[in-house]
Amino acid sequence: MTAAVELSGLTKSFGSVRAVDDVSAVIAAGQVTAFLGPNGAGKTTTLRMLLGLVVPTSGNATFGGRRYDELRDPVRHVGAVLEASGYHPGRTALDHLRVLSTAARLGRDAPMRVLAATGLAEDARRRVGEFSLGMRQRLGLAAAMLGDPAVLILDEPTNGLDPQGIRWLRGYVRQLANEGRTVLVSSHALSEVEQTADHVLVIAKGRLVRSSTLTALRAEASVGCRVRSPEPDRLSTLLDAAGHRYRHADGELAVDAASEQVGELAAAHGVVLHRLTETAGLEEAFFRLTEQSPLADQPASIEKGLA
Amino acid sequence: MNALTRAELLKLRSTRLLGWILAGTLAMVLVTIIASVPSTGSTNNVVSLDEPALLARIVGVSYLWPQLTVALLGVLTYTQEERYGTITSTFLVEPRRRWVLAAKGVALVLASAVIAVATLAVSLVASIALIRARHGNATVGAEFWQVVAAAFLVMALSGLIGVGVGALVRNQIIAVTLTLVWLTAGEHLLIEALPQVARWTPGGATFGLLQLGAVATTSGALLDAPIGGLLLVGYTTAAAALALVVAPRRDVL
Known about the structure:
Distance between the termini of chain A: 7 Å
Number of strands of chain A: 13
Low-confidence stretches of chain B: none
Strand content of chain B: under 5%
Structural class of chain A: alpha/beta
Number of strands of chain B: 0
Shape of chain A: globular
Structural class of chain B: mainly alpha
Mean pLDDT of chain B: 90
Largest interface: A-B, 31 and 27 residues
Number of helices of chain A: 10
Strand content of chain A: 25-35%
Oligomer: heterodimer
């Protein structure tokens, strides 16, 4: 697995407050990695250190072995959306992008290309001050895509978006990943990235408390449902065919899938169920991990699962 | 560097700020000229209508507002980016922050040249028309061209100092207020109260470089133009050097 981004012992202190504490992680190329943690956990500071905007107290972050400020034409390698407020309200969307593309020595057609890709072509000549929050988020993504980068970093991109905007964003991020790009997306809510992420990094109180695949996290958190059936073998065969992981437990099957999925699968094939119950939700597991995990009190961050 | 400078110029052009500032500045230039050209028969004029260097004095004093404008524009060039958060995308495109600061400086020098030309056009036409209407001496002599050259230098240096102040202070309200209070009141009061000290300030150096003499202060304690010019270059170098050292080390949060 190729590493697109590496964080090594990244630490940042503001006075006596240690905002980020010895974070080490590897972001695999070509995948969507969710960077999760509650508000104030250190996500934004970590991302800003990664992008050379905040100077680390110690440690470093690299893209293919180079710090961000060592990259030649960085926007051609890395695109970032860090905040929805990074616009002059009196400047048009097109001019905002023209400023960036001019500075980055990109082609003249780049601004309109990314505006079209993010559904803002018709609003190109409107001033950004007239934009809704969702449109600004799209404009942020457009700016990030100007250099057609292989790596995208998105900091809480769904903040303030309505459900329609969140759905669009999920689809867009998934599309970017399908194109082979590496996406690192931060969020304070696991549910927002659950449908798009391949890997998760969980940070709490400035420390990395988990790095693994979402599937592994789901399995370990006993996320899914428990099902009892008089036809366990048939049900097992169906679950295997559908790609759902399961294990036998107390005469039941513990399945790593939502109860709705299992129930509909059984009904579609005429398998009788005697009992179908939800087990702990992934969000609850995430909450436990960030608020109560003993790992949060360990001095060093933990890196596993991606190597 | 060229690309960064073009981007900075586009930033200036792509909002309405520059247009409003230019219109307001030229209006103030006109007001300054009307107030500065001596009245016919008045005995209270600091310069007389017969003085050979009258046009040079009037054009020189007409650059005081544009100088303030360019200094403010320099401050806003940096502080607006902090205020609206665009500094993040600016530094993402070019992480070498000294290059960004240098590009802002070059852009301000170019913008100051444009404003200086517009000021000269308005100032020259209005001054000559008013002086001739009052039967004064509107000779365009060597001193006039020295003042014009000095004015272009003052404008460029003021823009650079503004960028430096903006990069150092960062907070737009504080930076703009400091600049306005210092340039419109602080230095003028200091020059009247302590002329021997105040002539060494940036404002004192500017007045000396523009050879404003009695137009700027009744004490006549201004520096000679070359010394004033060198002093202003020194202040600009100090502000730019400080900004180039401090800005790259700051966290962009």
